[in-house]
## 1
Amino acid sequence: MKSQDIRDKFLKFFESKQHLIVPSAPMVLKDDPTLMFVNSGMAPFKEYFLGNADPKKNRIADSQKCLRVSGKHNDLEEVGYDTYHHTLFEMLGNWSFGDYFKKEAIAWAWELLTEVYGIDKDILYVTVFEGSDDDSLDVDQEAYDIWKQYISEDRILMGNKKDNFWEMGDQGPCGPCSEIHVDIRSAEEKAKVDGKSLVNMDHPQVVEIWNLVFMQYNRKANGSLEILPNKHIDTGMGFERLCMVLQDVQSNYDTDVFTPIIREIETISGKGYGKDDKTDIAIRVISDHVRAVAFSIADGQLPSNTGAGYVIRRILRRAIRYGFTFLNQKEPFIYKLTDTLSKQMGTAFPELKNQKRLIENVIKEEEHSFLRTLDQGLLLLDRVIENSKSETIAGTKAFELYDTYGFPLDLTQLIAKEKGYNIDEAGFNAEMKKQKDRSRAASASETSDWVVLKEDDTEEFIGYDTLVVDVKLTRYRKVTSKKDGEQYQLVFNMTPFYPEGGGQVGDKGSIEASNGEVIYILDTKKENNVIIHIAKNLPEHLNDTFRAEVNEEHRRLSASNHTATHLLHQALRTVLGEHVEQKGSLVRPKSLRFDFSHYAKVEPDQLQQIEDFVNARIKENLPLEEQRNIPMQKALDEGALALFGEKYGDTVRAIRFGQSMELCGGTHVPNTGDIWHFKIKSEGAIAAGIRRIEAITNMVVGDYFETIDKEYQALKEVLKNPNEPVKAVENLQSENADLKKQIEQLLKDKAKNVKGDLKNEIVDVNGVNFIAKKVDLDASGIKDLCFELGGELDNLFAIFGADNNGKALLSCYISKSLVAEKDLNAGTIVRELGKHIQGGGGGQPFFATAGGKNPDGIEEALKAAKNYL
Ligand code: ATP
Ligand code: MG
């Protein structure tokens, strides 16, 4: 069965069980501070499990892109070494939100595996939670009793809390789970070792394929469990592992999910897969990592130096390193795999096809720059080895290589070993631990449980229409972190505060109690669909009615920049072409930033056209046309622009100003005229194929012109108020250039005169033309002098000293014939004479110079020169 059919069959099956089939959510999470990437099928549905939003249907199924490379689930170091863990993988899942529970979940899983896919039930094992004393929980008897209707009891195994109790995080919904494992070993192997003893023992052919989680508890901040009013089902099946079983192979990498990419790597590198352990690991690493990186770029997360972008960069660098070390790839090559990947996965994930060019460009550029870094790192390592006093290289040095050049310990060890050195591993690990402790301490925070004042699950955002409203506090919690100290997160029954999102910063403002007490709202964020207001303290009377008021200027300027961002987007697509796609934006009161895909520098005249285009739309006074709840498809049909990597609902908000129409949740000015003016401040590249424009609007433009005008006036004054200031500066510049030329000529003439005088002072010492003298020339003048004299006289040994504004200079010239004959070396001589001027230098045997800080020593140095003859 082809992988494509395996995926389809899963979705069809659950569709037939009344599930709504939804597409995979983007892999990069936007409003969940606890997670960087979706790491399990349930992550995009967290808000439903937490009760913060209602799902479209209480039965859903999908195939979700997951990435396990950071945080609680991190499989990165396994990838390549084993055959069944990936960084990016697809998790097939079916969900019940307060609908069916264990009975159906188990029955359907069994039906799908054994009847639809036809897996022999004698290769399956299932596990059941055995209970745990910490939580005073008993064995999951309910699950056990259901399982035994389908599978013989000797294939039902008990599992501990680590494997069979699933938790989303330190807090929140959780529950026991049942895993389904397969044993795909040969009959011979099975006869030797009982499969039961290999379950959950990291055996490559006895692996977990599906986990059925029965969410029935909520974990509170103090660690205790409470029973959830609504019970949920969350299941996750590894798609690639399922393909391995159904395609009757022994490794995920032998399925058609991976073989086309592996064939391509073989072709490029000329190395075969399946011949040598190290090569195989490298090929698996690369074929896995290119998927993770490509999917991430398609979802809008580019490699960068911080946060999620840094994680992606490290994954790609890991692949580059393996290619470099084990496949001998010294030039970029991973980007070439993009083509095969997008052909193969593009049907299920069209974003790969649509963004192919960008993905290719970004990967190629990253490869280029990291290969350069690798080269530098290798040189550095050579130097470290050269300078090492013993055969053990210090752990701090190895860590430095790791930290700044991305050299992992094993690579450093490998290279060192080839040269007969080893690494102080304990020292390396100690440095690593220090760094981890530092970053943990910096980001550590503690969050209390919510204190619920009023049950109210539909918190309303009314900030599009008003900035002031009376609100009630419905819940709050305390967050303590090193960075911000103690803060409170407040949730109201409704709110005018816009939460950070869509690139726009969150609102600031205040709430005022009836007794006049004012609490400042420092920022507003959205977390799992709840709008959170951040304050330094709690109001005294929690049940009061508060007058919530958004800081009007902060909001107005943000809105002005947000609307300008839409107009800029339209301008870019008009002036540069329809290929321009938004790749990121930052909208705040003082400025806006817009990142977009484009493959060349934006020329000054194009920038001018773009700016003019936006300002023309501003002058047209285009009114805001807002459609709050229109069906997604309708909005797209009307020409609205949607962003890749953004999660949209069925109904969307569409924002139109004239011909610009975008899906957007941000706040906007009522009329483009309110922007006043738009001014681009800068344009440049931030990654391969990605450009960034920074611009300002509104009164910030006024301030900007004001400042420029002041500088301009000051400049004019310095120039004595000429009628044409530009011309005046140009005149100054050309005058300056003329003067420079004259000075150069004068210096040359002077050198000539000096030469004439000096020639008379040359004396014969044992057949050598010798001179040692202080001259009034600069370094290049002395050099010219030496070579001219050398050209005119044979057997010349000349030493000149000069005091250039307090800096001492010594130059030594020795005719080549003398160098050989008398075994003289100008480099050695200046180095030795350099001591007199407290300096050093060097050069070639026939010409060398030294610089020093003691001009008083020049005479002495010159005197000493004669000793060399
Ligand atoms: P394992 O113990 O094998 O790492 P897990 O307990 O971490 O698995 P879950 O978190 O329960 O797995 O995820 C559900 C399913 O997703 C697993 O049964 C497995 O099929 C699949 N899966 C988990 N991690 C990976 C991975 N890194 N690569 C590929 N598939 C995975
Ligand atoms: Mg795991």
## 2
Amino acid sequence: MASFSTLNLSPSPKPTHSLLKPLIPAPEIDTRTQIQTPYPKLILTGPSQLSGHVSISGSKNSALPILAATLCCSGTSRIQNVPDLFDTRTMASVLVSLGAKVEVLDNEMLVNTDGVGSVEPNADEIQKIRGGFFVIGPLVARFGEAVVALPGGCNIGVRPVDLHIRGLQSLGAVVELRDGKVQAYAANGRGLVGGSFQLDYPSVGATETLMMAACMADGTTVLSNVAREPEVVDLARFLTNCGACVDGAGSNKLVIKGKSQLRGCECVVAPDRIEAGTFMLAAAITRSCISISPVIPCQMSSLIHKLSAAGCKIKKCSHDTLEVSAVSGRGGDNLLSVVVKTGPYPGFPTDLQPQIMALLTTCNGLSSVEESVFDKRMSHVSELLKLGAKIQENSMIVLTHVCYHVSVLNGSSLVANDIRGGMSLVLAGLAAEGTTEISGVAHIDRGYENLDMKLRFLGADVKRLMPLAS
Ligand code: EPU
């Protein structure tokens, strides 16, 4: 039986934080049950022609683990360029529920975890987002114990945490699952110890959890077959600035020398490559020309490769600015089909699969899309069909979806079921003739800061319908 006596595990203390801006209310969906209410809705009238420039926000998937990593640090961490999203604010609530002080001012968060007095974050907050679970690594590494509810997040397939757990066990943690919570503590009663662990699959979240844990373990840890995603590199950069010793970020092997203490530091979250890619696809599906910045062009290689193969022109205007042009001389059939298969970085990102599928329904020829990261990330297909898209599921070839020739899309009423799938409906709505009405918008809002404003700025006809005040 596990003992949890080294820290007081009484209910989380009442927040003593100072939030300059209140945490935003829960969205109109419950990510655990996928219950939806119809509002807000996005109303798009197309087809749209886009032009001009769009600013890319900070990366959600970099900000979330960096916020979790502040639990490793004494003193205050100042995290800038945090996108103002439901997920980042939920992560702030997770930290606050542990006793951390979090100040939010526009896109900046000041986090001080010196007052943390609990190792059990609020389960309701953890279950709203996948990234909340990542606190298990820093908690058990710094405080010797953690009790963390199983996470929520988008409904895109089975999302186990076995790699996180087995990795922590290889660092000397005892881990048990009880009442939907993962309870972990250092077996030696003192702290984690360096070890070796090979991930069966290069999971982004497990790599991040284990990197944070290893930074404070006693001795050296070698993690192999780790994720190489830019978000992992961003986290390693933050931890290194806090005094950690992490080698190999961006490769498939990490060597981490543990330190007994890390100090909070300042950091600027990198631009969101998935938001950037989504706007590049918006330019393509509307056969428009737009520029985007800031963006790190080398992180966009797999998308640039597919867009170029389809016939788009991508120009690097400066070190952090790209111009995407798909302007057609004759009608809208100038782009060609391509074959897409998602995979871990540097492969084609699963987080852009639904959006590129929307584009491919408008391209000339037979495209195919294979999702290899998540087993149920296809909820957008049934909605795209309602617009008139020609997509067929080919069960003979594992999870391949074939988009046939040029589909003429016509507006319809659609439901977003997850962040990226929802965004693919927005892209299709931009290209479709007439009015497209999208509900389940809270899903989309989780990943895209100021979405409607950015689209309107580019010339799209987008309105947001809010519920009538009762
Ligand atoms: N997996 C396991 N066991 C584990 C962990 C993962 O089998 O212990 C499997 C998953 O079931 C999945 C695959 O590994 O089939 C990849 O999952 P991964 O752990 O890499 O994903 P994640 O860390 O849960 C992050 C992003 C996702 C993004 C994926 C892949 C965050 C908060 N989320 O999720 O982002 O799709 O990496 O790049 O960083 C999104 O932003 O819309 C989103 C879903």
